[in-house]
Design brief:
This is DUF4242 domain-containing protein. The chain is built from two helices and four strands. It has a single domain (3-84), classed as ORF SCO4226, nickel-binding ferredoxin-like monomer (Alpha-Beta Plaits). The protein is an alpha+beta fold and 85 residues long. A four-stranded antiparallel β-sheet has the order 2-3-1-4, covered by helices on one side. It is globular and about 45 Å long. Helix 1 packs antiparallel against helix 2 (56-66). Helices cover 29% and strands 31% of the residues.
Length: 85
């Protein structure tokens, strides 16, 4: 499955309720998207999220349905540090 990094800019601090987390999971599942993990900036206004998804359009649809930004979507490949050992 292809992997993508999404950069999101938030106007205020990010906080998720339990219901919000469940909604994210349900919508992602319906779009064939899997949220792997995220990094949150120190000011809590920007996230960098790693996803597996069929394509960038599936990520955009999920973000639209969740009413969250998907400012930059970048396809990525994984590089294991052992490659350089």
């Amino acid at each position: 499955m292809p992997r993508f990094i999404i950069e999101r800019n938030f106007a205020k601090e990010l906080a998720l309720s339990d219901d919000g987390k469940l909604q994210i999971k349900q919508i992602n599942d319906s779009e064939g998207v899997e949220w792997i993990f995220s990094f949150l900036s120190a000011d809590k206004r920007k996230t960098y999220c790693l996803y597996e998804a069929p394509d960038a359009d599936a990520l955009r649809r999920a973000a639209e349905r969740l009413n969250i930004p998907a400012d930059v979507i970048t396809p990525v490949d994984q590089i294991d540090p052992n490659v350089f050992a």
